[in-house]
Amino acid sequence: SKIQAEKAVHQKKEQSKTKCRKARRRHINLVAEFNHRQRKNIWLETHIWHAKRFHMVKKWGYCLGNSPTEKSYRACYRAMTKHCLLQDLSYYCCLELKGKENELLKQLARICSADTGLTFQEACCLSGRFEGSLNLYRADRYPEDLLGPVTFIWKPRDGSENRQLWIWMHPALKQDILRELKAVFQCSEPEEICITEPVTTSIQEEKQVEVVMSLGNKRKKEDKEGEKAVPVKKIIGDGTRDPFQPYSWIARTTGIAISDRSMEILRFRLIGPLSHSVLTGTLKAASVQTV
């Protein structure tokens, strides 16, 4: 009858309003939610991929994948021996040094020793062609007071006496090594251009986060304060760096600057005989343009 037909149409309209589970769980703003959920422990950019496949642990201010949820050890071994295995090492901390080459080498020689192997002055590493590794010690204290192992990469020369050096270390060692480098190079004054202020998102992005957090309750939170609502702070830095503190220091006498680049430069490790093939197929060399 006519009444039953109208009732059927009305039911169809109600069913169309009810979204499927996938649509209800869809992230409205990935960046806003990503920042909102990593306030206590920093996430790597591969966090979501690992969280679906690994048991996660909270260490050194990060949330890291510890062990796989499935028995994939044979697959990993097969990849390492015959193909390519990729690891995300972005939680490793990076300290950047800038200044005149002779000034850098003069002070860096105080925190390492040729008796242990390579130094920062090794020709193959100083040219920027190869990465070096060594142990750092407190200034003029070798063989006592070991700080820990690090790896380093020099930026290739560009004709200037100013050089750039990146030193990579485990996050558990970062604070001690940073403190020693600042003391050795007398970098006590924060660089004004590098002082980090808490970057905030827009009011609209904050509202989107509220919607994401309240989707499970199927109701949207009302913003009572409107424009006065406090926006979500974007995470700057990493688990070993306070976003409210400066992260770059300079020595006024020598001009040498130390910057904390942790979580600003991603780092991946490729293991296996096809590693170079994967890199060749993935990366393309940029065309060098001279001004």
Question: Which characteristics define this entry?
Answer:
about 290 residues, alpha+beta, Alpha-Beta Plaits, seven-stranded antiparallel sheet, three-stranded mixed sheet, 10 helices, about 30% helix
Describe the 3D structure.
- Among the domains are: 21-70, no CATH class; 93-189 and 246-262, 2-Layer Sandwich (Alpha-Beta Plaits), CATH 3.30.70.
- It has 291 residues and is an alpha+beta fold.
- A hairpin with an 8-residue loop joins strand 6 and strand 7.
- The longest helix has 16 residues, at 2-17.
- The protein has a 7-stranded antiparallel beta sheet with strand order 6-7-8-5-11-10-9. A 3-stranded mixed beta sheet has the order 1-3-2. A two-stranded antiparallel sheet has the order 4-12.
- It has helices spanning 2-17, 21-24, 30-37, 47-51, 73-82, 101-108, 123-126, 174-185, 203-214, 275-282, and strands at 42-43, 54-59, 62-68, 85-88, 93-100, 132-137, 146-154, 162-169, 189-190, 248-250, 257-260, 268-271.
- It starts with a helix and ends in a 9-residue tail after the last helix.
Quickly describe the structure.
Pfam families: POP1_N. This protein is 30% helix and 22% strand.
Fold topology:
Elements: H1 2-17, H2 21-24, H3 30-37, E1 42-43, H4 47-51, E2 54-59, E3 62-68, H5 73-82, E4 85-88, E5 93-100, H6 101-108, H7 123-126, E6 132-137, E7 146-154, E8 162-169, H8 174-185, E9 189-190, H9 203-214, E10 248-250, E11 257-260, E12 268-271, H10 275-282
Parallel strand pairs: 1-3
Antiparallel strand pairs: 2-3, 4-12, 5-8, 5-11, 6-7, 7-8, 9-10, 10-11
Domain Pop1 N-terminal: 6-99
GO cellular component, one term: ribonuclease MRP complex
InterPro entries: Pop1, Pop1_N
